[in-house]
Design brief:
mainly beta; Immunoglobulin-like; 6-stranded mixed sheet; 1 helix; globular
């Protein structure tokens, strides 16, 4: 049986609110999305900072992935690319559960974390 890696691309926009907190928003195919979702097969989600976010000085430094329900966090890995303007999160989807995915970014020497776009692993039907 051959496993095909499903690829999903997201654009990420980050703005600082009045409290200087980083507010993350995500788009897929030009439409607003949560940045998370449900995975039933091995998936690679690439999150790329939009040009305005890069111009502000943001770049990815990594990701923190923890278990929320079950033990699926071990299924995840991440890789930075494009001069830290993109991060690919790969999920083998081997274990059912829900993972918390936090993006780590930096801007002008200050570190920020995203709110949690949750990823839920379910068995294929």
């Amino acid at each position: 049986m051959t496993i095909t890696l499903e690829k999903v691309d997201f654009q990420v926009h980050i703005e600082l609110n009045d409290k200087k907190e980083a507010i993350f928003s995500y788009k897929k195919n030009g439409k607003d999305v949560t940045g998370g979702g449900m995975v039933r097969t091995e998936t690679a989600g690439t999150y790329t900072l939009d040009p305005l976010t890069v111009k502000q000085g943001f770049f990815f430094t990594g990701a923190t992935i923890t278990d929320k329900v079950g033990t699926c966090a071990q299924d995840f890995s991440h890789k930075l690319s494009d001069n830290h303007q993109a991060i690919t999160i790969t999920d083998t989807a081997e274990n059912p559960g829900t993972a918390c995915l936090i993006f780590n970014v930096e801007c002008n020497g200050k570190a920020y974390e995203s709110a949690d776009p949750q990823i839920k692993n379910e068995k294929e039907l």
